[in-house]
Specification:
The complex is a heterodimer. Chain A is 37% helix and 13% strand. By secondary structure, chain A is α/β, with parallel strands linked by helices. Chain A has a domain of 271 residues: Amidase signature (AS) enzymes, CATH 3.90.1300.10. In chain A, strand 10 and strand 11 form a beta hairpin. The chains are: A alpha/beta, B alpha+beta.
Chain lengths: 484, 476
């Protein structure tokens, strides 16, 4: 039996029935990493020593017959979530040797539920990008075609799940960074409602948009992880005091009569034909399960990318100011303070990060603030209102996750605008603060995965999980594995 | 030409909370560098601020006490700039929507009440401290102070003289100390002040170009720095120059303000709403509760002292500046002291001692009980006023003994027995025949000489009133 192929639910069963041990499962994962990660390059750091200790502690508790939800389950964490005592780099030279003296809220919660941290996964530097090509260290490869990128910024986590280098993973999503790589790698990725999951310990890119979520092999695993990481955290003022249901409870419920909105603006002329066909077929499938498709309009969609790149970069320009060489992380020499600052940031940050800091700094300049930041906030309100209006008549909205399947490494690196458009279908969701999930819904003729995005109402992850699960159970896409 | 100054003050007051504004670290002053820090106030990656509710309460109290409108909806903003003592690269402050607006305080200058408008009060976090001494080619950064809660109180340009500025500062200090929201210690930096100053010819309505003077860190310097700056601006204009809008630093050693040469001026702080904190919403009910819990404030107290005790405005103002002084006064009155005499005693004799010894009124051994006791001795003629405010006061301050005890122990009982005094008078008259003749010839100024001689002879114990009477009687 290839233990690394297991999902959370299967592994739980085998562990609890003592058919396997936590160490055996962990070893199988590390062997898998050993054999394929040279190609995939999903991991920045492996935490074997701690993982062994965590697995042994898990085993002890399993032996005592009182296993926690994910006791002994090997999980990979995107390297922008702080892990106490384990290097957390954000794929940036400026934090290359940063070891946090504190734990992020999500990893604390996973820990309290018995997980085994196997390592930290690659990302675009500070989560800024859609391909992991902006990583300060190396590019992760798409397990379905190692000439191609895995998507981003949570490309390392998505690739690790797709390549069975972990049982499940966490990613973060500011403009599509969980869903787009999940789509491109043929796995499930869920961005929860803004405020559902604590951001404490998540290295901030754009504070009003960032949200952590699961990347898993199937819908049920996402529901299991979401159960654990959700809920109000006193250390994150923006986390919401909203009750957390058991998200696995709704899985298997009928979707008969559910109204699914199909936004006109997301099916545009010139879009990739294979993507369009797969998504339309998926909508038919949902219809056959009893859902009712309704054409809707989200009229301000065309402003989403521009709005996003003003707001996200503005917040980023401020969030990244703390990397100044004074307190921790990389410091370059300089003849005086100003030169030290400039050298540190010039050498420590990559090109895309610098581009965004400059964009954001410009947008917040006095004299330009009203024209950019303030205008973008107004546009954000309109985009949010579009969704609110749509949700008056539908229960959820279905769209493609990404306008294209995985592209070739280097194909878009010289054209940032083209790269930004990779997130054209995912960005609005972050601006509106609502939840969305990406699930596999087909393959291109090149055998590249295609993702279906299901968008839900505020704090209604249950509905999208229910629909995603119903679709998944009636298809086989999620069972396909890349040939590595 | 005659000029008048237009002055607005930005006062930074450190709030007396136990913990910092966005984390649980202690705010205690004077600890070893960087011992009162955590990932949040050091600005480590991924950490988030959580607002200390006490800070909202303190700012609300201050706003209510200065007649401000308390905003039901306010929020924090980021003020972005790079400096080693600013760990996040931005200061969390309030910008567009401060917690308090549109207030005022009243000050008494030259026995006249002046109203100084308050534009706004907002909350913000303090920065750390750079240390350049003893580090060779390096500088150190101490982040103990980073994240300590501050209130910035911005006045309207209603202040016209350095004296008014000082009185305004004193009034704010008195209010905040009374509320217990700030200890008002300028020397330790818990109260700081920047001033915006311009001048204009008397009668002109338009404001002149203003300069901002920073680094004024003691009450003494508020007046000095402003006086200097006003003179400087007048000189610039009278020499045909123009005042430049700029930031100037007060150098207390040299006693001058110096230009920062536009360096700070170029700053664009890229303010935007703080996305890591939710807006603050305050319910009227909570404001009402705070309002009901406020102690009697210095202004109200001043007015009450005038009407209830018949004190002059000036005396009432001095007595109500510090809560402890007002309490001292009222205690003495309650114990039977005459309000006007008690007030006089505090303002002249006790304040003098406090200033000399740099002490608080609560720290001295001369309590209201002692004061009332000594006043009753004077009233009964058992001792003289002179004796009371010199020997007796000094002795109480040293030993804490009751004045009546001191009077007995030291044999300071006043001689009011006329026969005893008469003897002394006779002796003095006998010894100074020339002076007696001159006095009789009309040189009445010599009365003082005789009284002095008699007091000397009786070691100051004779009742001066009786001495006076007897001398006059014997020499007429």
């Amino acid at each position: 039996m290839e233990l690394y192929r297991l999902n959370i639910f299967e592994a739980r069963e085998l562990l609890d029935k003592r058919k396997i041990t936590a160490r055996e499962l962990l070893n199988a994962i590390y062997q898998r990493i050993e054999s394929v990660d040279g190609k995939v390059k999903a991991f920045l750091t492996l935490s074997k020593e701690q993982a062994n200790e965590m697995a042994d502690a898990a085993q002890k508790q399993i032996n005592e017959g009182r296993p926690l939800t994910i006791q002994g389950i090997p999980v990979a964490i995107k390297d922008n979530m702080c892990t106490k005592g384990i290097r957390t780099t954000c794929s940036s030279k400026i934090l290359e040797n940063f070891i946090p003296p504190y734990e992020s809220a999500v990893t604390s919660r996973l820990s309290e539920n018995g997980y085994v941290l196997i390592g930290k996964t690659n990302l675009d530097e500070f989560a800024m990008g859609s391909s992991t090509e902006n990583s300060g260290f190396f590019t992760t490869r798409n397990p379905w075609d190692i000439e191609r990128i895995p998507g981003g910024s949570s490309g390392g986590s998505a690739a690790a799940v797709a390549a069975d280098e972990c049982i499940a993973a966490l990613g973060s999503d500011t403009g599509g960074s969980i869903r787009q790589p999940a789509a491109l790698c043929g796995v499930v990725g869920l961005k929860p409602t803004y405020g559902r999951v604590s951001r404490y310990g998540l290295v901030a890119f754009a504070s009003s948009l960032d949200q952590i979520g699961p990347i898993t092999k199937n819908v049920k695993d996402s529901a299991i992880l979401l159960n654990i990481i959700s809920g109000k955290d006193p250390f994150d003022s923006t986390s919401a005091p909203v009750a957390v249901p058991d998200f696995t409870k709704v899985l298997g419920n009928e979707i008969k009569g559910l109204k699914i909105g199909i936004p006109r603006e997301y099916f545009i002329k010139g879009m990739d034909r294979e993507i369009e066909e797969s998504v339309k077929t998926a909508i038919k499938k949902l219809e056959s399960l009893g859902a009712i498709p309704v054409e809707i309009s989200l009229p301000h969609t065309e402003y989403a990318v521009a709005t996003y790149y003003v707001l996200a970069t503005s917040e980023a320009s401020s969030n990244l100011a703390r990397y100044d060489g004074v307190k921790y992380g990389f410091r370059a020499e300089g003849k005086d303070l100003m030169e030290m600052y400039m050298n540190t940031r010039a050498q420590g940050f990559g090109a895309e990060v610098k581009r965004r800091i400059m964009l954001g700094t410009y947008a917040l300049s006095s004299g330009y603030y009203d024209a950019y930041y303030k205008k973008a906030q107004q546009a954000r309100t309109l985009i949010k209102a579009d969704f609110e209006k749509a949700f008056n008549s539908v229960d959820m909205i279905v769209t493609p996750t990404s306008p294209t399947a995985a592209f070739k490494s280097g194909e878009k690196t010289d054209d940032p605008l083209q790269m930004y458009l990779s997130d054209i279908f995912t960005i609005s969701v972050n601006l509106a603060g609502i939840p969305a999930i990406s699930i596999p819904c087909g393959f291109t003729s090149n055998n590249l995965p295609i993702g279906l995005q299901i968008i839900g109402k505020h704090f209604d992850e249950e509905s999208i999980l229910k629909a995603a699960y119903a679709y998944e159970q009636s298809t086989d896409w999620h069972k396909r594995k890349p040939n590595l | 030409m005659k000029y008048e100054a237009v002055i607005g003050l930005e006062v930074h007051a450190q709030m007396l909370t136990d913990s910092k504004i966005f984390c649980g670290c202690s705010t205690k002053f004077g600890s070893e560098p960087n011992t009162q820090t955590c990932p949040v106030c050091i600005g480590m990656p991924g950490v988030l601020p959580v607002l200390n509710k006490k800070a909202i309460e303190f700012a609300t109290k201050t706003g209510l006490a200065t007649n401000c409108k308390i905003s039901s909806y306010s929020r924090f903003a980021r003020k972005n700039y790079f400096y080693p003592d600013l760990p996040k690269g931005y200061q969390i402050s309030q910008y567009e929507l401060p917690i308090c607006e549109h207030g005022y305080v009243e000050i008494v200058v030259d026995a006249e009440i002046r109203r100084i408008g308050i534009t706004r009060i907002h909350m913000e976090e303090d920065a750390g401290k750079n240390i350049h001494e003893g580090a060779g080619n390096y500088s150190f950064v101490d982040l103990n102070r980073a994240g300590v809660p501050l209130m910035e109180i911005v006045s309207e340009p209603d202040i016209r003289t350095p004296k008014e500025a000082t009185e305004y500062m004193k009034k704010l200090r008195a209010i905040m100390r009374c509320l217990g929201v700030c200890d008002g210690n300028m020397e330790q930096g818990s109260l700081r002040c920047d001033a915006n100053i311009s001048i204009r010819p008397v009668g002109q309505k338009e404001y002149g170009t203003r300069a901002e003077v920073k680094n004024i860190n003691s009450f003494k310097f508020v007046e000095k720095a402003l006086e200097y700056e006003i003179k400087r601006q007048i000189k610039v204009i009278e020499e045909g120059g123009k005042v430049i809008q700029e930031t100037r630093l007060w150098d207390s050693d040299k006693g001058i303000t110096e230009s920062m040469r536009g360096k700070e001026e170029a700053h664009d702080y890229h303010y935007f709403p703080e996305p890591d904190l939710v807006p603050i919403t305050i319910e009227q009910k909570w404001i009402d509760e705070i309002k009901a819990s406020l102690p009697e404030l210095p202004d109200a107290k001043r007015k009450r002292f005038v009407s209830e005790y018949g004190l002059p405005e000036y005396d009432a103002d001095l007595l109500t500046e510090e809560k402890s002084t007002a309490e001292y006064f009222e205690e003495a009155v309650k114990l039977g002291g005459n309000p006007k005499i008690v007030a006089n005693w505090i303002i002249t004799n006790i304040f003098k001692h406090l200033k000399e010894e740099d002490k608080e009124i609560t720290e001295i051994l001369f309590t209201p009980k002692h004061l009332v006791n000594v006043l009753s001795l004077v009233l009964a003629g058992s001792t003289s006023t002179t004796m009371a405010k010199t020997t007796i006061l000094d002795e109480v301050l040293k030993s804490g003994k009751m004045p009546e005890v001191i009077v007995k122990e030291k044999g300071l009982v006043q001689i009011s027995d006329s026969s005893e005094i008469e003897k002394a008078v006779d002796e003095v008259i006998a010894k100074n025949p020339k002076e007696v003749e001159r006095f009789k010839a009309g040189d009445e100024k010599l009365l003082g000489f005789f009284v002095g001689q008699i007091m000397k002879l009786t070691k100051g114990k004779a009742n001066p009133q009786i001495v006076n009477e007897i001398v006059k009687k014997k020499l007429s």
